[in-house]
UniProtKB/TrEMBL annotation:
Chain intervals with Acidic residues compositional bias: 50-64, 86-102
Signal peptide limits: 1-21
Name of this chain's protein: Lipoprotein
Keyword Transcription regulation (UniProt): no
Keyword Signal: yes
Highest rank taxon of the organism: Bacteria
Organism: Solirubrobacter ginsenosidimutans
Lineage: Bacteria, Bacillati, Actinomycetota, Thermoleophilia, Solirubrobacterales
PROSITE patterns membership: PROKAR_LIPOPROTEIN
Region described as Disordered: spans on this chain: 26-116
Keywords carried by this UniProt record: Signal
UniProt feature, compositional bias: Low complexity: 31-49
Amino acid sequence: MSVRPATLAALLFSVLALAVAACGGDDTETTAKSTPAATEAATEAATETPDADADADADAQSEESEGKDADAGGDGDSEAEREREEQESEGAADKDCDEVGDDLTGNPKEKMPSDIGPLSYAHLYKSEGPFGKTERFYAVLDGTPEELASRRDDVQNELVQNWGFASLSTDQEEGSEAEAHLKGAKHTVDVQVVPLCKGKLRIRYTVQ
């Protein structure tokens, strides 16, 4: 049987076309299979990035908050306030009591909570607050900068023995201030004793 040249050429072209189509189909299928996976990976990466940034921001805010807390003193004062008070107390022992600016013979506007009492031989003359759950009370007594720690101990001992408080800690800056931190059944109390004026010391009770 003889095949015409034209027919043979058409047959070869058909076989070639089928081969090319088969190869192209594999590429298309491979691309179709790989594209969703690549898209999914890109989507996951885009989704994870904001979360990672959010976590980093949260960590930074937490560290900043902890840093601010670390700057606050045990009596709730910021570091700047504590430094200002220390500077004020440096010259207080030589200052005339008329220059204090408070009536040291007066009485506080607010009363101390019923589970707390001032030092028996000190005069309570001023109160501040409440500021939320915090109140401050000020008392004056005779004394010198050399007696700061001993007067602080007197305040602490009365709160422990007469009012049922437990001492948490004490600290002091020689000639500048002496502090005590105590906890009771209903309140915590931070006591600060500083020079006020000639021959006088000031006790500050920060009650929370």
